[in-house]
Every structure is written in structure tokens, then in C-alpha cells.
Design brief:
The protein is an alpha/beta fold. The chain has one domain (17-269): Vaccinia Virus protein VP39 (Rossmann fold), CATH 3.40.50.150. Helix content is 39%, strand content 25%. It contains 10 helices and 7 strands. It has a 7-stranded mixed β-sheet, with helices on both faces. Helix 3 links the parallel strand 1 and strand 2. The longest helix has 17 residues, at 207-223. The radius of gyration is 18 Å and the shape is globular. The two termini are 27 Å apart.
């Protein structure tokens, strides 16, 4: 089931250790703030694309039960270990596909997805499958970045090139790099009602943030699946990717370096 993806769809980021490391810094408080007030002690949540489970664990502290799903068996195992380390007895994790969820109709009160829909070639189809497993009146809650809104200073032409290249690679892999701005449309097309849309920003404006973000992308752009996809599709050479990598490290070293972008956030009701 986990391997049943639409033709041409590939996960742009991959699972390089620097990428997984960045995922482990995600929390429910920062990534699901728009949803947390709606959770109750009896709420049953499905977290699709749960990755290493740090957000899942945070959701579990606000809900009755949380199930995490990811197509990567490696990520599911890491999520299970994280939940065990946190002493959480109300979590479980499964390997599976968002396009074919392994649960009966009306099994959950909430389906949550963070930075997942941007990687899907059929996001509306995935949202319809989420609607299937939701109880009437249940909620879908999705949050995704909009790469087109990413801005930085001082401006490096190589990083500007990276932003264009990222869009090209995501499109070649069947995804949508600017997913944040399309969430409202996708959730509405999937049949949800009473849709509410908000937006939040992510920013790296201190030395720690610059170092973490800059070094992460310096590695990702040269060594991760993103690099392989860019080269395989004839979108960049290894030399160009190294230039971009160098620019990220140069930007991170600037004491006045600034980086920010917009995340779209949508909650819809299952009719």
C-alpha cells in the first residue's frame, strides 16, 4: 500500500539525515497552533505524513488518541520510538498511503496533515480519502508552505536560482511548491464545508536560526534526493548545485541575515 503512488509522483525531499533532523524540531505548538484549540480529551486524530512523530506526540498531549501514518517504514519506526520515549500511551503508527487509508469510513474526528499536500500530484484525491475516514462533523486540518513567498536578505543570486529550481523540481515530481496558497481551493473541491483559512509565517532571524536553516539547505541542495532529482531531470548540474550550497552557507554567516515565508492553514468540516 505504501508504494501505491500516482505515476510520476516522487517525494522531493527524501530522508537524508539532515532533513529528518530538521523534522524532529517540529512541534504541535508551532505547526498545529491553528488546530490545537479545537482538540478535546476525547478527540481521535489521524496525522498523515507524520514523519518522525514529534508533531504527533504534541497532538497526543491535547487529544484522546492519535494515529500517525507515513509511507516510510523508517519514519514510522522513529515515530514509535519517539512516542515511547515521551511515555505516550495514546499513540500508534502505521505504514501506508494517504491515497488509500487503511481504516473504515468514519473512523476519526480529525485528520491533520503538515507539509504533505505540496508533495502530492493528487491533493484533492488525498483530501477526499481523508473525508472518507472522518466522522460527520469531523475536521480536516492542513498546513503547507508557499515557496513563492520565501524571501531573504542579503540577497544572493544563487539562492534566488534555488527558489526557481525548487519549483521546477517539485513540478517534475508531481508536486506543488506553492501549495499554501491553494489549500482553500483543494479542501473546498474535496467536499468540505465551513472552510476557514488562516496563514502564519516562519522566520529565521537570529544566528541560531540562520545556522540551522542555512546549513540544512547547504547539505540538502548538494547531497539529498532533491539534488539527484534536479540533475536527473536536467534542471541543474552538480557544479550549479554546489554554487547554491556555498551561497546558503555564506548567507547563514551574515549577522543581518533574514529569511521568512508564509504557510497556508485550512480547516474544513466533513459534511
Amino acid at each position: 500500500m505504501a508504494d501505491q503512488l500516482p505515476e510520476g509522483e516522487r517525494y522531493t525531499h527524501g530522508y537524508h539525515q539532515v532533513i529528518v533532523g530538521s523534522y524532529t524540531r517540529r512541534t504541535a505548538e508551532t505547526c498545529a497552533a491553528f488546530l490545537l484549540p479545537r482538540l478535546k480529551p476525547e478527540t481521535v486524530v489521524l496525522d498523515v505524513g507524520c514523519g518522525p512523530g514529534t508533531i504527533t506526540a504534541g497532538l497526543a498531549r491535547h487529544a484522546g488518541k492519535v494515529v500517525g501514518l507515513d509511507k516510510s517504514a523508517e519514519m514510522v519506526e522513529e515515530a514509535r520510538n519517539h512516542a515511547a520515549d515521551c511515555g505516550l500511551a495514546n499513540t500508534s503508527f502505521e505504514v501506508g498511503s494517504v491515497y488509500e487509508l487503511p481504516w473504515d469510513d468514519a473512523s476519526f474526528d480529525v485528520v491533520y496533515a503538515h507539509q504533505l499536500l505540496q508533495h502530492l500530484s493528487e491533493p484533492v484525491g488525498a483530501l477526499r480519502e481523508a473525508r472518507r475516514v472522518l466522522r460527520p462533523g469531523g475536521l480536516v486540518a492542513v498546513r503547507d508552505s508557499d515557496y513563492g513567498t520565501m524571501v531573504h536578505a542579503p540577497v544572493y543570486s544563487a539562492i534566488e536560482r534555488w527558489r526557481d529550481l525548487y519549483h521546477q523540481v517539485a513540478e517534475a515530481n508531481g508536486g506543488e511548491a506553492d501549495a499554501g496558497r491553494y489549500l482553500l481551493s483543494w479542501v473546498t473541491k474535496a467536499g468540505f464545508t465551513n472552510v476557514e483559512t488562516t496563514a502564519s509565517t516562519t522566520a529565521h532571524t537570529d544566528q541560531e536560526g540562520r545556522t540551522v536553516w542555512g546549513e540544512m539547505w547547504a547539505v540538502r541542495v548538494a547531497e539529498s534526493d532533491f539534488a539527484d532529482h534536479a540533475v536527473e531531470n536536467g534542471l541543474a548540474t552538480r557544479g550549479e548545485l554546489q554554487e547554491i550550497s556555498n551561497a546558503f552557507r555564506q548567507w547563514a554567516a551574515q549577522p543581518d541575515g533574514f529569511w521568512a515565508w508564509v504557510n497556508g492553514e485550512v480547516i474544513g468540516v466533513c459534511p
